[in-house]
Amino acid sequence: MIALQKRPTPSRALSLATPLIAVLITMIMGGALFAVLGKNPLEAIRTIFYDPVFGEFAFYYRPQLLVKAAPLVLIAIGLSLGFKAGIWNIGAEGQYIIGAICGAAVGLAFYPTESRLIFPLMILAGALGGWAWGMIPAFLKVRFGTNEILVSLMLVYVADQLLASMSLGLLRNPEGMGFPGSRNFSDFPAASSWINEAAGLHWGMAFAFIAVIFAYVLLNRHILGFNIRLTGEAPRAARFAGVNPTRLILFCLGTSGALAGLAGLFEVTGPSGQINIDFASGYGFTAIIVAFLGRLHPVGILLAALLMALTYVGGDLAQGNLGLPSAAIQVFQGMLLFFLLALDLLTNYRVVLKKKGAA
Amino acid sequence: MKLTKLLTGATLALGLATTAMADPTKVGFVYVGPVGDGGWTYEHDKGRKAVEAAFGDKVETTFVENVPEGADAERVITQMALQGADLIFTTSFGYMDPTINVAKKFPKVKFEHATGYKQADNVSVYSARFYEGRAVQGHIAGHMTKTNKIGYIASFPIPEVIRGINSAYIHAKKVNPDVEFSIIWAYTWFDPAKEADAAKALIEQGADVILQHTDSTAPQAAAQAAGNVITFGQASDMGEYAPFPRVSSIIDEWGPYYVARTQAVMDGTWESVSTWDGIGAGMVGIGEISDAVPADVKAEALALVDALADGSYHAFTGPLNKQDGTPWLAEGEVAQDYSDDGLAGMSFYVEGITAEIPN
Q1: pLDDT along chain A (359 residues), means of 10
Q2: pLDDT tens track for B307-335
Q3: Contacts of B340 by beta carbon, 8 Å cutoff, 6+ apart
Q4: Are strands B274-277 and B123-128 parallel, antiparallel or unpaired?
Q5: Which of the 8 DSSP states describes residue B354?
Q6: Is B80 on the interface with A (CB under 8 A)?
Q7: pTM
Q8: Is ipTM strictly over 0.95?
Q9: Least enclosed by CB within 10 Å: which of A59, A114, A150, B141?
Q10: Which pLDDT score, from 0 to 100, does residue A96 have?
Q11: Which pLDDT score is estimated for A142?
Q12: Domains, chain B, ordered by start
């Protein structure tokens, strides 16, 4: 019988090194997968990990990595606060959608006015929308003791329906020839999140960096951050220390909702360009992986988001250049999470062989 | 617009390099689904293979599948242009704005966007008159239904889909005045699970004919399981479900168009055009009508195919009213492609359909 035994003191060094080891194992196993598919594994790995950053067209892909990573950072930072305290917001995707809808709606209401005030208002509306959507599971949890995992997840599907309804109804482009989708924000400079579109820079990136710094300071220098960590690591001790769980739940779900809403707003007014039925592209779910890959640490999340972005951008590159099927790329991304979780388990537990009947 | 200059410079350099070395013509394809979807993307990929078969070593094709519509599409299209593609086919409606954006940065590269309406000097648009195939479907369906209930799995409420519903309804009603349509909007082009659910729901409501405007074979499988329900292949022949439940199909034939456009690029005669071809030009094929259809119905259906092909009959011929009863086409009048109530932007049902277009 194989059994798992908790290690009394898990190695701290190993725990920090697991993401790197997981990436290495993923490269090896992924390379094997690509070899089985008849591709040169070294070339495939190079195309995914090296070419976007240092290859011939890196000048285009580097900003694209930031475009892809910025929403992941924003959302994952918010999620990590809750995850640290054992508050599980699984519905960031919904908060992302609602943030985008609210922000876009405010902007479109002013179309085609040109004013410097429009974009800040939209940012506010986006954050508020995401915050409100995050407060629903928070309120239900503190008031009725519902499970925030289920409620926040279910609200994603509600948000999806709202998105479809907005694309076909209220926010539909009146000049869109009857097709669904709002006006494109690229035709509305006052409401665009691009700082410099040609260079691939938008405000979401600036906010992502601010969020990283904000989270770092909060967790390391502020009593609220201390309470969050304490609640996650020792709930009983936290209660004795007088931590108010209700306030913590409201803060964590509200903040992660607001950050997800901001991510949605910056995405819709920049890279995506319009509210449309298929606007949601899974950032809210991918950010969960990013949060854990980054060890729930602000700087770790920043690096993890860049790594995830790399597998997406490099993955598309490998498809186009090497003819790898997209399913192989998805398996490759799945491997990364799988090996990370497996290594996490082995860091905290030891595998022991027990004789049958001994237990 | 520094990057624009840089990008143009890069393409210019590449363009010079390609002519100097007489490299093969590079043709890229961007797909919204997987090449194995058995429907829409599968047929586009057959078109790509037709290009390879026609030109052999003189052409080099690449494709990226499962590309979400939006920011990712823009990156993938740019990637192809950067890698030196001479001609790029973007094969889903949602790639319209990304295609136009990338085309602005790469004036030397030719783009072909499927099913959209935005043209540019280096962007052509092309689509097929699928509604002609729908007319044949409706004709057979009206004859074959015993419950007089026809289920329709629609994807997105865009003109192309609404045209299909109207055309099928008009021709079913013509041969069976008691026929009723139930329409389910799946809000997806390809999602086997959702499509199967929709098919099952329609069958439970009493439909014994299922028409689909989604790309997977899941509705075919659901009909097969039900046992007494007929279906039609969509985008692809779906012949593995013949002769029953699949009694016929609408087949997209992109190959000849793709070959012709590639030839035009090679010859230097490529021009931006808007192509909208039907059965007559061979872009829409009608799959073999199986023996499950009575011989006289089959003969009538084939006569309808011939009439549509030679132009002696138009699928939208008056007298026809809109759903609200207002007149649309007078006796003998045929619908215009581009006019206020034209086919290109069709956003209303014809009289007799009881459902409402989602709004």
Answers
A1: 84 84 93 93 93 91 94 97 94 97 95 90 97 97 95 96 90 82 88 85 94 95 91 87 91 97 96 88 91 92 94 91 90 89 88 69
A2: 999 999 999 998 999 999 999 999 999 99
A3: none
A4: parallel
A5: -
A6: yes
A7: 0.86
A8: no
A9: A114
A10: 98
A11: 94
A12: 2-128 (3.40.50.2300), 130-246+286-329 (3.40.50.2300)
CA distance A192 to A172: 18
3-state secondary structure of B222: helix
Q: How far apart are CA B25 and CA B17, in angstroms?
A: 12
Cα–Cα distance, A125 to A131 (Å, whole number): 10
Dist CA A179 CA B350 (whole Å): 18
CB nearest B345 (choices: A177, A316, A325): A177
Q: Which residue(s) pair with B334 in the sheet?
A: B317
Which pLDDT does position A356 carry in this prediction?
63
Residue B12 binned pLDDT confidence (cut-offs 50, 70, 90): very low
Query: Is B28's CB within 8 Å of A186's CB?
Result: no
Point out the residue among A165, A199, A277 whose CB comes nearest to the CB of B3.
A199
Residue B86: both structure tokens together: 């001479």
CATH of A38-324, one of 3.40.720, 3.40.50, 1.10.3470, 1.10.287: 1.10.3470
What residues of chain B lie within 8 A of the CB of A177, using their CB?
A: 117, 159, 344-345
CB within 8 Å: A57 and B83: yes
Please compute the mean of the pLDDT values over residues B141-145 and round it to a whole number: 96
Q: What angle do CA A64, A70, A74 make, to 5 degrees?
A: 170
- Given an 8 Å threshold on Cβ–Cβ distance, is A316 in contact with B67? yes
Identity of the residue in B76, B82, B358 whose CB atom sits nearest the CB atom of A316: B76
Rg over CA atoms, chain A: 22
> What's residue A66's pLDDT?
94
CA distance to A15, A25, B338, per residue, from A19 (Å): 8, 10, 57
Decide: B210 and B226 in contact? Cβ < 8 Å: no
β partners of residue B276: B127
